Amino acid sequence: NAGVTQTPKFRVLKTGQSMTLLCAQDMNHEYMYWYRQDPGMGLRLIHYSVGEGTTAKGEVPDGYNVSRLKKQNFLLGLESAAPSQTSVYFCASNDRENTGELFFGEGSRLTVL
Amino acid sequence: AQSVTQLGSHVSVSEGALVLLRCNYSSSVPPYLFWYVQYPNQGLQLLLKYTSAATLVKGINGFEAEFKKSETSFHLTKPSAHMSDAAEYFCAVSDTGANSKLTFGKGITLSVRP
After folding, report:
1. pLDDT for residue A11
2. What are the beta bridge partners of residue A66?
3. CA distance A92 to A97
């Protein structure tokens, strides 16, 4: 019973490098989200998707891109990493019947040097 | 726009003492309200949720929360703290729209002293 799976779980990048975080869910959920968690800031929404082929900006989208080519996958990309993007990233999913309840992955810790 | 305020960033209680974590919300429409818990190095998991049914909501691990519209509050309580309750707790709000998104508070770290 996998739920929401994020890869990789840890990554260290140098400033200017690019990378992609992968989120996969096996619950057939329509909606998927990427959040970042920083100390004292709670969770802030980066981008989200309400269905395959759709994406939308959240609260803090700058410096990130996303794609939802398949319903079960939601990719978060950093084209040119910056130290300010050092954070823990969480993927989550749900559908309209969940009345807002989110199902979270275990997080991906990214450090940008 | 919706928002959630969690007063304080850290609460410390003794084992067996009452746990009270405060949450106030601001929403222009009747909200859905949630408490999530995050144990160290894990993702968030749902503790309980209010979706306009009973105002007193019971969740997992003995936690409960009461929705008070007049006070715009949704405080989380547990009568007797256990060491295993040590974690970070997040209050969140969403509106009732079909594409509603959650807005999270900044979180409160709960420590439990032996």
Report:
1. 96
2. A76
3. 15
- In B, minimum Cα distance to A30 occurs at B99
Distance set, CA A80 to CA A19, A62, A108, B45, B79 (Å): 8, 11, 18, 32, 49
Of B32, B44, B107, nearest to A99 by CB-CB distance is B32
Q: Output the tens digit of pLDDT for each of chain B's 114 residues.
A: 678 999 889 999 999 999 999 999 987 667 789 999 999 888 899 999 988 778 899 999 999 999 998 899 999 999 999 999 999 999 998 876 655 678 899 999 999 999
- Closest partner CB to A42 (pick from B46, B49, B107): B107
Residues of B in contact with A41 (CB under 8 A): 106
B61–chain A nearest CA distance, Å: 18
d(CA A23, CA A34): 9
Give the span between the Cα atoms of A35 and A92, in whole angstroms.
Answer: 8
Write out residues 92-111 of A within 8 Å (CB-CB) of B: 92, 96, 99-102, 104-107
